[in-house]
Amino acid sequence: MPKSLRSFIEQIDHQHPEDLAVVKRAVDPNNYDVSAILEHLTQRQRFPMVLFESPLNLRGAASGMRVVSNVFATRELVADALGFPREKAGMSLALEYARLERGQIPWIGIPRDEAPVKANVRRAEDIDINELPIVNHYEMDLSAVVTMAAAMKDPETGEYDVSFIKGFPKGPRKMGVSIHSPHFDRILEHYEKRDEPAPFIHIIGHHPAFFLGALALAPWGHDDYAMIGSFMNEPLRLTPSETWGENFMVPADAEIIIEGTIPPGVREVCDPFGEVTRHYQAQCLRPVLNVTAITHRENAILHDVFSGHQEHWNLGGIPKEGGIYNALQSRFGNIVAVHMPYSGCSRFACYISIDKKIEGEAKRVGIAALAESWMFNWVVIVDKHIDVFNEQDVLWAMMTNVDPKRDIDTIQNAYTLFDTAAGYTKMIFDATQPLDRPFPQMMQVPDDAMRRINIDEWIESRIGVH
Amino acid sequence: MAERIFWVKCPGCAGRFYCDYTLRFDVAKLICPFCKNQFMPSESPEIDDRAVTV
Predict the structure, then answer these.
(1) Predicted-complex ipTM score
(2) Does A332 have pLDDT greater than 60?
(3) Measuring CA to CA, which of A311, A331, A425, A465 is 20 to 30 A from A200?
(4) What's the predicted TM-score (pTM) here?
(5) Least CA distance to B18: which residue of chain A?
(6) Which helix (H) or strand (E) holds B38?
(7) What HEC string does chain A produce?
(8) Chains A, B: CB contacts under 8 A, how many?
(9) How large is the average pLDDT for residues A322-337?
(10) What pLDDT, on the 0 to 100 scale, is given for residue B3?
(11) Considering only CB atoms, which chain B residues are within 8 Å of A142?
């Protein structure tokens, strides 16, 4: 069986049932029920994938579909999606992602009548976006928002590009769309220069490896469908679209696909929307999608990302940590680990541990890291014995090793996308121990003692008080 | 993001939300996320568009 969202849910239900929560009661996603349940779980530090079996649609009626969220909420679930061992879900998982990013598996085409996503087809006047159980996330959001990936096809190269975007329902057959990836910007510009409508599809639900592949940093002109095959470890199955036939192929095993065209030069008001930074994106003008077809599986599962939360952050951090590690390691050779922590929304902070040999080395690594991602405002360099995945350790290193006069550097007027108080200011914190003067050493239980003691043999499960 | 914003009060429900500064001078009707009222910024009873001061 080809991989799909439902095959992944079955896999988790079978292998890690503790990581799948099912909500059988009817929920109203447009009235924040889904967000409130996910927020309660977050406040309890619980991050199961959550399947909502009876969501209402935007009209408040039974949708006949399901909703799933938190699919990427832990690094272990992301490891499961990539067929990678859970116990290696730290730096090793990020390096695995970087390896997959360099691969390609060509897609295969299948006829429409064999494609599960064609089980239900709506065209023209039969289309009503309001029949979908789209999730309204936060109190200042303008509307419910589709949070998953989309595909466009460049008119010059003929190659497909897949990126995450947001879709704002604006009527039964109309949506606002956030074209904010560099490649989508470029493709839309090409159509607008020709004064032609741009073909566009929303892909709302597929195997999580599909969406992880959509986040890969492919060079311009590469076929993203083939790169996604690398992440799925099998050829992605495509089928002709309803609107453009074989001229625009769509994922056959998706849950829901919205097809439409973006008219050139048209912009309408969209947002606010609670974004990855936990701030709202300001209301602004965005392109518009005129919907030409909606197709979906039987009992379709609308896949949603709980924005500004752990799964949203994993989608930013894991795809970049490995690539940054590889780039820095090839240059310096002393990189131990790289992590983009949740506290920085896995976007604007980066912790790097190094095997420091000479004074001043950390700062060079920090400067190079800033060049690797325009997202970073904060880069913190620590020694090799500090676990960058343990934020308490990193903050301890900052608070004990950093001399503010010498170890904090700022760079002004360097672009970033994100609205934090730092703005265009970048900071490098050298939180490594100084080597150019006597300095205290961090205490440590001897390694041989740690190896000799198997904790499970020493601690009894019940504590008796006599 | 990383753009200048301004806060605006909806003349219909008094709900406050914010917009990209490119919408500040009546280029399009804003949509209140709380009551869906559409209005030009010039119709708002209260706008905070202070610029950053250093």
Answers:
(1) 0.95
(2) yes
(3) A311
(4) 0.94
(5) A282
(6) strand B38-39
(7) CCCCHHHHHHHHHHHCHHHEEEEEEEECHHHCHHHHHHHHHHHCCCCCEEEEEEEECCCCCECCCEEEECCCCCHHHHHHHCCCCHHHCCHHHHHHHHHHHCCCCCCEECCHHHCHHHCEEEEHHHCCHHHCCCCCCCCCCCCCCECCEEEEECCCCCCEEEEECCEEEEECCEEEECCCCHHHHHHHHHHHHCCCCEEEEEECCCCHHHHHHHCCCCCCCCCHHHHHHHHHCCCCEEEEECCCEEEEEEECCCCEEEEEEECCCCEEEECCEECCCCCEECEEEEEEEEEEEEEECCCCEEECCCCCCHHHHHHHHHHHHHHHHHHHHHHHCCEEEEECCHHHCCCCEEEEEECCCCCCHHHHHHHHHHHHCCCCCEEEEEECCCCCCCHHHHHHHHHHHCCHHHHEEEECCCCCCCCCCCCCCEEEEECCCCCCCCCCCCCCCCHHHHHHCCHHHHCCCCCCCC
(8) 56
(9) 96
(10) 76
(11) 31, 33
Question: pLDDT digits over A335-363, tens only?
Answer: 999 999 999 999 999 999 999 999 999 99
Contact B22 A423 (CB under 8 A): no
pLDDT of residue B54: 59
Give the model's pLDDT for residue B1: 44
**Per the CB < 8 Å rule, is A281 touching B1?**
yes
How many angstroms away from the CA of A283 is the closest CA of chain B? 4
Buried b (16+ CB within 10 A) or exposed e, A392-411: ebbeebbeebbeeeebeeee
B30 contacts A272? CB cut-off 8 A: no
Q: Which pair of tokens denotes residue A203?
A: 């892909």
* Nearest neighbour of A283 by CB, restricted to B1, B23, B34: B23
